[in-house]
Amino acid sequence: MYDPCRAHPVLSAWLTSLSNLILTLTDNVLYLQVYMAQNQSAKSSSSQMDSSTTDLKKSSREGGGVFSSCIRGVRSLWATRQTEETRSNRELYVKTTLRELIVYIVFLAVLCVITFGMTSTTMYYYTKVMSDLFLNTADDKDVTFKDITSVEDFWSFARGPLMDGLYQETHYNNESLSPEEMGYIYYENKLLGVPRIRQLKVRKNSCQVHEDFANFITECFDSYAESIEDKEPFGPYLEEYNNTAWRYFSESHLGGSSHWGLLNTYSGAGYYKDLNNTKTESSAIIDHLFEKLWVDRGTRAVFIDFSVYNANINLFCVIRLLIEFPATGGAIPSWTFRTVKLIRYVTVGDYFILACEIIFCLFILYYIVEEVLEIKKHKLEYFKGFWNVLDICMVIISVVCVGFNIYRTLEVNDKLTDLLKDPTVYSDFERLSYWETRFSNAVAIAVFVAWIKIFKYISFNKTMTQLSSTLGRCAKDLAGFFVMFIIIFLAFTQLGYLLFGTQVEDFSSFENSFFTLFRIILGDFDFHQLEEANRILGPIFFMLFVFFVFFVLINMFLAIINDTYSEVKSDMANAKNEFEIADYFKRGYMKMLDKLNFKRDKIVDIQKALQTADINQDKQLDFDEWRQDLKSRGYADGEIEAVFAKYDIDGDRVLGEEEQKRMQADLADQKAALNKEYDDLGGKADRPSSRVSYNDGDSGDDSDDEDSGTKSSRTGRTSNGVSYEEFTVLSRRVDRMEHSIGSIVSKIDAVLVKLEAMEKAKLKRRETMGKILDSITESDGTSDEMKREQMEKLVREEAGTLGFGNFSWCHQRPRSFTQRR
């Protein structure tokens, strides 16, 4: 039997695709029919669904035990996308992510409240006031602390601006202060204890003098190092045995700590002297040290430490002034002002911060449990995720901050207790302020990480994932670029340090040279300094660096980022969003509007029923008329009975004029309230009704182009998220598609009929040729003329049967064939 599909494989593939299209179309038609049926029965089944849902919940509560319910409730507190199976359940994925995001936003808000409660702009102004007093106040020689360049300048500052700043004993009108007003700086800042002055020295002959100069230079003092510290008593230590200024004390004895200066890192040990509470006695101490040459050639650093407290703003300012005396001679000043809030809980606002800190601790415990559960489930695979590692870092930093907060509170209380016992001793807040600053830095990092972590919860669509995808995809290229950049950059850093390090401050050290080149990239440079340092190599160095680094490497970096971003953007243009939370909120918003529309449409239907149900126009609306009208509008008997009974006060199954007016008034009030609520949600008051009769579907325009579809998508929607207009357009398109497919199928049938006719003709020709050959073989005894006549007769008969007309070749083929025989 002839099979056209087997004979024509291209046609077979075409028909297969067409059959798949027809099946898909059939599914769409069935979906539309089901959708129509659901819309028609939505109202009648709503009450039944509510009752069945209630029964289901009731049976679930009765079937489940109290203990299992508690376990599920507790476990749901730590339900995350990594602890729950959310890959196959889109709705669970959405809800879990939203729950995580909401909880994390609350955590972030609490953390921000705590951090903003730790600092304020007042801290800056407090620091500025103190620094201006001690750094910018000039002595009689018009030398400030910042201008100190020699030992003489140091002593001039210590005997002048330092004493004047620490001890203010008169008002601005030169009237002496009362004893209660003494000990304050600027009348507001209480000097805690007494200031301390301390120095570090190196041993004599701690460096080696070249033999050529050994006869001329007999003493040598190396740069500072802790291994060559001078620990021997010096000066008049025998006469002033109890004077600590001439004796060395270890770091543990002083309770000090190391300090990173401009030239070296200095230990907390040394020779120290505590000043007094009054200016007279403190000045006498400074004068005595000056006269006895307390600072000599071996001195490498002098520290001046003191602390002040302002009760008005509850802030401490811990001040350290450092003068370094390098082996080159001269003096280099530096300073540290740490304004910290060591006493945390004084005002009502402070106690509110305390409450937030307690909530923060609870959040940390919550996230610790969450991390443990996730690690328990995923094992080592958990640490391969970037966000997971960030979560662990966040928890660790937070735990450290909480621990230090507790330590700081206890330590400050001990310090203040010791200070109040004896206000004439030095109160060392240096270590505490140092760790308070480190604590503030840790909190700042925690807040930064916390804000960055928001991308974990909102990187769910194309827009949010473009940045992360771009960085992730170009990571290997950037790693290779970074290696090349560092090699070239370090080469230029070393070159600049060696060429200009002795003359240009910006290249005076390898570190300074490194950051100076970064400043050149950003456009912050001084070309004239390079040119003055070396008129030939300076410009060459500058031009080579700008060419290779700025024009080549930086543009290569930008090209990598731009190309990768273009690829990511192109790939994501056709990709489906991983998590469309915006659409999720939009659907919820639209469902809320649809519920309001449904209620409003119900009111409109009842209002219309009041106007049209009274068929006999007797101004008396009986139940049968009421039921018949609302039944035609698709309402169930239960709803019809409930509304009628509500206003049928006398129970006579008839609504009188007063009862109808009361119903109309109530309906008008309800409709006004719904319209107001609808407008508050951002809807349009003139939005078309979602309850449209399906019998009117063909009354409109038959246009179903994109514009009509787009326009209809913005009109009323049903509770399932599809508007009647969209349904109408879709059904029209289905009808058109069915009509088009019908014409295509008819054409295919015609083609198949023609193919079958051609195949039959082909078979007929084969049979004819067979008869001709048989006739030739069977007529061996006849003459050639007789054979020719028989063949011509047979060919004419068969040709007439096939309908091909005369064949001129029939007179030649038998002859040639006979000749071949």
Task: Offer a few descriptive terms.
single chain, 821 residues, alpha+beta, 5 domains, six-stranded antiparallel beta sheet, 27 helices, 61% helix, flat, disordered C terminus
Kindly report how far apart the N and C termini lie.
Answer: 36 Å
User: Radius of gyration in whole Å, from Cα?
Assistant: 48 Å
Overall geometry? flat
Task: Work out the number of β strands.
Answer: 10
Overall mean pLDDT stands at 78
Secondary structure category: alpha+beta
Quaternary structure annotation: single chain
* Biggest sheet architecture: 6 strands, antiparallel
Regions with pLDDT < 50 over 5+ consecutive residues?
1-64, 684-720, 804-821
GO cellular component, one term: plasma membrane
Family: Belongs to the polycystin family.
Disulfide bonds: 207-220
Transmembrane segments: 101-126, 343-368, 389-407, 439-458, 478-500, 536-561
